Amino acid sequence: MRTRNVILACLAMLTMGSVQVQAQGLGGLLKKAKKVLDTVKEQTTTTSSDSKSQSSTASSTASGGQDGQTTQAIPLQGGGTLYNPFEKKLEVEFVGLYGTNKSMNFGDVSVVLKLKVKTVCDKISYIGDDKTTAYDDEGNVYRIKNTAYGIKVAEGISVKADLGTYGLYFVNVPKKTQKLQLVKLYLYNDFEDGNGAKSGYIELRDVPITWQK
């Protein structure tokens, strides 16, 4: 569209009065028109290159970058979504969030997952540490009681991992809380594939809590 407008402007200049043609000459007008067209082409090429670069960057971010990690949401059957940055090395299935009574109004919440490694690996180093947090709809932040170490897994087999049995709980969650808006589980492990240890967050969003009756 910009190129078309420039061409129309050049034609308008060529049809102006004879005084301008005599003063500048037809050759001068044509040289100026060509200079303007070259400038427009250069700007258009630069803009196109920038757009392709931005598009490539956005695509890399969506697919998790050079590490092959994914940030795509995996919808959960009971509601909510899961984000697994280790998709190429570890399949993660969400089983549930389970609350146990601690007092009349508060309880502790544990996470149950199914883990299937795709490499020769028999355990996950740990899930937890102080980076692991959860948030409810009111913006309250919950910390964990312990870190889960040495979580047992097996290559090609989905193994249930009740993080509560490893001592990992979100503590002092009000029993009126029906779901957690965000759960960030920090995982660290060497998948023994020759690429060294990896770390990142398995994220659960808008997942319901099943409270003990």
Please describe what this structure looks like.
The structure is a single chain. This protein has 213 residues and is α+β, with helices and mostly antiparallel strands. It is built from three helices and twelve strands; from the N terminus they run H-H-H-E-E-E-E-E-E-E-E-E-E-E-E. It has helices at residues 2-14, 18-24, 26-62; strands at 74-75, 81-83, 90-101, 106-117, 123-127, 133-135, 141-143, 148-152, 159-162, 170-174, 179-190, 197-211. Strands 1, 2, 3, 4, 5, 6, 7, 8, 9, 10, 11 and 12 form a twelve-stranded mixed sheet that branches. A hairpin with a 4-residue loop joins strand 3 and strand 4 (106-117). The longest helix is centred in the N-terminal third of the chain and has 37 residues, at 26-62.
What attributes characterize this protein structure?
single chain; 213 residues; alpha+beta; twelve-stranded mixed beta sheet; 3 helices
Summarize the structure.
This protein has 213 residues and is an alpha+beta fold. It contains 3 helices and 12 strands. The longest helix is centred in the first third of the chain and has 37 residues, at 26-62.
Radius of gyration: 30 Å
Low-confidence stretches: 14-24, 46-68
Overall pLDDT: 79
Span between termini: 68 Å
Give the overall form: globular
Helix/strand-derived category reads alpha+beta
Number of strands: 12
Task: Summarize the topology.
Layout: H1 2-14, H2 18-24, H3 26-62, E1 74-75, E2 81-83, E3 90-101, E4 106-117, E5 123-127, E6 133-135, E7 141-143, E8 148-152, E9 159-162, E10 170-174, E11 179-190, E12 197-211
Parallel strand pairs: 3-12
Antiparallel strand pairs: 1-2, 2-12, 3-4, 4-9, 4-10, 5-8, 5-11, 6-7, 6-11, 11-12
Helix pairs in contact: 1-3
